[in-house]
Amino acid sequence: MGVAGCGKSSLGARCADALGWPLIEGDDFHAAESVAKMRAGIALTDADRQGWLERLASMLSAHQGGVVLTCSALRRRYRDQLRAAKPGLRFVFLDLDPATAHLRVASRGAHFFSPSLVASQFAALESPVGEPGVLRVDATQPLDALTAQVVSWLAAGGRP
Ligand SMILES: Nc1ncnc2c1ncn2[C@@H]1O[C@H](COP(=O)(O)OP(=O)(O)OP(=O)(O)O)[C@@H](O)[C@H]1O
Ligand SMILES: O=C(O)[C@H](O)[C@@H](O)[C@H](O)[C@H](O)CO
């Protein structure tokens, strides 16, 4: 979880590989209207995210074993909705500063997410630090180091 550009897709793919778990790429399940809004530089509302979170929650609960999901999950209530679908769900919070997030989003070329929306991601973000089952990581670390951190945290039980 984390703001646009924090590295959810990059780290999620590596963790899924390392753990041998399937990957659900959350961005693939936004409504077409939501993608059009983000492309146009209009931030999503709670209402826009509701159906998306329901789709992600039902995919999570359909998996019997381990599964990796990439999802911005910016607000506490979004995370609680996902937790309700998958008891024991853990969150890796990719913590990134606004300037680096903006730089990454602006330099990644053909992607629907408008760089003008990065500030709104930070406005929506409610830090998950202090919630159960959350690992906060420094999203500027190299991906290999981040993957190792996640895998060893889960192996140790995935507690805060
Ligand atoms: N740890 C990292 N160090 C340096 N660059 C990174 C790191 N993680 C991701 N990046 C780069 O930052 C950009 C955004 O990464 P990525 O698409 O994985 O983020 P994201 O959180 O999934 O974004 P979004 O949700 O907006 O799709 C990419 O160009 C990626 O290569
Ligand atoms: O909740 C949201 O506002 C969205 O999920 C965004 O975070 C983007 O989909 C994602 O980061 C793509 O760049």
UniProtKB/TrEMBL annotation:
Catalytic activity: D-gluconate + ATP = 6-phospho-D-gluconate + ADP + H(+)
Keyword Kinase annotated: yes
Lineage: Bacteria, Pseudomonadati, Pseudomonadota, Betaproteobacteria, Burkholderiales
Highest rank taxon of the organism: Bacteria
Entry-linked Pfam families: SKI
SUPFAM superfamilies according to UniProt: P-loop containing nucleoside triphosphate hydrolases
Enzyme Commission number(s) from the entry: 2.7.1.12
Name by which UniProt lists this protein: Gluconokinase
GO molecular function: ATP binding; gluconokinase activity
PANTHER family per the UniProt record, alphabetical: GLUCONOKINASE-RELATED (PTHR43442:SF3)
Keywords of the record: ATP-binding, Kinase, Nucleotide-binding, Transferase
